[in-house]
Amino acid sequence: xxxxxxxxxxEVVKVVKLAIDHGFKIVxxxxxxxxxxxxxxxxxxxxxxxxERMNSIIEVSDIDWYARVxxxxxxxxxxxxxxxxxxxxxxxxxxxxxxxxxxxISNGGGGMRGAKYGPASHWVLGxxxxxxxxxVIRVGCRTVKCREGYNLVQVxxxxxxxxxxxxxxxxxxxxxxxxxxxx
Length: 183
Ligand SMILES: Cc1cc2nc3c(=O)[nH]c(=O)nc-3n(C[C@H](O)[C@H](O)[C@H](O)COP(=O)(O)OP(=O)(O)OC[C@H]3O[C@@H](n4cnc5c(N)ncnc54)[C@H](O)[C@@H]3O)c2cc1C
Prior knowledge:
Elements: E1 2-4, H1 9-22, E2 25-29, E3 46-50, E4 57-61, E5 66-69, H2 75-83, E6 87-88, H3 101-107, H4 114-117, E7 124-130, E8 136-140, H5 152-156, E9 165-172, E10 174-175
Parallel strand pairs: 1-3, 2-3
Antiparallel strand pairs: 4-5, 5-9, 6-10, 7-8, 7-9
Flavin-adenine dinucleotide is lined by residues 27-35, 38-39, 51, 71, 93-95, 99-100, 102-104, 106-107, 109-111, 160-161, 165-166.
């Protein structure tokens, strides 16, 4: 078993190609908070690709209400930054302090505010991912109206890392509520 912590999509591509060449399986991992064990690899012949160090916010548009982020950013850290724009990514698993955006997307997560906002599948506009051949694909777009044939973004959401390693996400944002009640 090996653990790697890439810092860029190019490094993810290199890892995937090396794994293919040497016959290793790959398990992408965010913060490993998933309770269903889907981020718990078998140890033999496995490379764990931790996305922890790919944790930047690339762009926030407070005009079009989207953010482009790397997958390793934690949900609460993202929302703390978005507060200064009066915006939020309203997907709120109870693990949001620790869970990464990439992990939540790959789990199709949701939370207590799901009754109002729905789960992750409502809040992802586009994805960049490295698939099992080592190729980089980009699906979706930056706008809510996105017409591009098959909706591959939704296929990726909840796919638990089986279709590829998410290396960037374009997230749909919502305005912060005018007031909060409770904790
Ligand atoms: C205390 C606690 C409370 C929780 N509350 C909720 C809740 O309210 N609602 C809810 O839906 N869930 C909840 N969860 C589970 C929740 O699904 C996870 O916390 C979260 O979605 C996983 O994020 P993570 O970064 O830890 O991902 P991980 O656990 O590391 O990974 C989860 C899955 O995604 C894959 N993955 C991770 N990163 C990537 C990537 N970049 N590309 C491709 N695949 C990737 C992994 O291989 C794995 O299959 C809770 C968990 C805990 C421990």
